[in-house]
Amino acid sequence: MPGVLDILDSILERALKSSVFTDRNVLLPDYVPPVLHHRDEQIKRLGMIVAPALRGERPSNVFIYGLTGTGKTAVTRYVMDRVFQHSQRIGASFKYIYVNTRHRDTPYRVLADIGEGIGLKVPFTGLSTGEVFSRIVKRLNQMRDMVVIVVLDEIDFLVKRHGDDVLYKLVRINEELKSSKLSIVGITNSVYFIDALDARIRSSLGEEEMVFPPYTAGQLRDILNERAKLAFKPGVLDDDVIPYCAALAARDHGDARRALDLLRVAGEIADRNGDTRVTISHVDMAVREIERNRVAEVVRGLPLHAKLVLLAVAASTVGGRRMSTTGEVYDHYKGLVRRIGLSPVTMRRVSDILSELDMLGLITARIVSRGRYGKTRMVLLETDVKALLTASREDPMIDDSGIVELLARELGVTM
C-alpha cells in the first residue's frame, strides 16, 4: 500500500505538468488581456475623457457603474495603462493609482495607498486620516505639473462602511493644489450609489458618467474562446463547455467574471482528477465548488450575530424562495440567540446587519410598499442553503448549539 508521502509526491509531480492547462493565469480575475472584446465604445469614451492628462490638464472626474463582471475594472485599467505608456513616450507628467476599497477597507488604508502611489512613506498605523491627507496635498504640491488619476474600485463599499468624508476630501483636493492636479475615477456595481451621495460630492464626482451593460451569451462565448486559446492545451475542451459556461453566466446578469471562474475551476477539477478533457460535468462540479467557496469565505469573516441573522433569513424562508419581513427574520434570530444562551441585539442593529449582508450579496433586501400599512423591508436569501449551513458550522458556538442540525431538518437539507 502506498504511504501518504508517496501519494503526496504523486500529487506534486502531477501539478508540475498540467493535463489541460498551458497558462491558467489568463483566466484569473486580475488578468488584463491585450484585447478587450465587446467594450470598444467604453474604451473610446474613457480614453477621450482622460486624454487631456497628456497635455497637463485635469481630466473630468468619472463615475462608472454596472453589474458585476461587465468589464468596468478591466476597461479602466486597460485605458490607464495605455495612457501611462503614452505619457512615458512623450515625457508627460502622469500617474495613476488603483485602489480596491473593498480590500483596503478603511479610509486610512485608502489614503495610505494614494500617498504611497505618489512616493510618500505612510506608516501602517499611527496617523490620523487628516494628517495623511495633508501629507498627500503637500507631496502633490512638490510634484510640479503632475496629473494624477486615482481609481477607486468598489467605492460603494468604502462609503457604506465609513461614510463619505474621504471621498469629499478627494473631490475637493484641487482647491488646495498649486500646479499638480488630481482626478477621480469611481467604480461601483450599484447603479443607485451615486444618488445616495451628498449633493456636493455627487456634482463633483459625476462630471462624467459611464454605464457598462451586461454581456450577452454570445459576447461571453467570444471572451471565453479568446481566453481558452491562451489558457488550455489544444483540443482539451469539449465543444459544449464554453457555450455552457457562457449560458450560465448570461443567466447571472451577463457576468464575465463568473464565466471565466466557471471555466477555470472546471479546468482545475479536471486537472486534479488527472482527466485529459474538460466536460460539462466538470462545469457542474465547478458551479457547486464556486458557490461553496464564496459562501465559506464570506461567512467565515462575519461576526457571530451577523451569522445568526443570516441563518435566521434562511430559517424564515421555509417552504420555498419566498421573501420575509424584517420582523419575521428578527423573531427567528431571537430564537437562535436564545439557543446559544446569548442576549439578542436590537431590532435596529439587525436591520443594519441586513443592510451589510445585502451589500455582500448574501441576501436581497428591498423596501416595498404595503399600502395603508406603510412600507416594510422584504428579505430574500441569495445563498445556497447547504453551503451556508456548512460554512456556519466552522463557528464553534454555532456548531456546539446544534443550530445547524436543527435548521437542516427544518429546511430539508441533507448535511
Task: Give the gist of this structure.
This protein is of the alpha/beta class and 415 residues long. The chain contains 18 helices and 8 strands.
Architecture overview:
The protein has 415 residues and is an alpha/beta fold. It has 3 domains: 173 residues, P-loop containing nucleotide triphosphate hydrolases (Rossmann fold, 3-Layer(aba) Sandwich), CATH 3.40.50.300; 84 residues, Helicase, Ruva Protein, domain 3, CATH 1.10.8.60; 111 residues, Arc Repressor Mutant, subunit A (Orthogonal Bundle). Helices cover 53% and strands 12% of the residues. It has a 5-stranded parallel β-sheet, with helices on both faces. The protein has a 3-stranded antiparallel β-sheet with strand order 6-8-7. A hairpin with a 5-residue loop joins strand 7 and strand 8. It is globular and about 65 Å long. The model has no long low-confidence stretch (mean pLDDT 89).
Ordered list of secondary-structure elements with their pairings:
Blueprint: H1 4-16, H2 40-50, E1 62-66, H3 72-90, E2 94-100, H4 107-117, H5 129-142, E3 147-153, H6 155-162, H7 165-171, E4 181-188, H8 199-205, E5 208-212, H9 217-231, H10 241-251, H11 256-273, H12 280-300, H13 304-315, E6 324-325, H14 326-340, H15 347-359, E7 363-369, E8 375-381, H16 385-392, H17 396-401, H18 403-411
Parallel strand pairs: 1-4, 1-5, 2-3, 3-4
Antiparallel strand pairs: 6-8, 7-8
- Total number of helical segments? 18
- Strands of the largest sheet, in order across it? 2-3-4-1-5
Structural class: alpha/beta
SSE run = HHEHEHHEHHEHEHHHHHEHHEEHHH
Task: Specify the CATH architecture of the largest domain.
Answer: 3-Layer(aba) Sandwich
Shape: globular
CATH overall fold name of the largest domain: Rossmann fold
Mean pLDDT: 89
Distance separating the two termini: 32 Å
| CATH fourth-tier homologous superfamily of the largest domain | P-loop containing nucleotide triphosphate hydrolases
Q: Fraction of residues in helices?
A: 40-55%
> Count the strands?
8
Rounded radius of gyration (Å): 24 Å
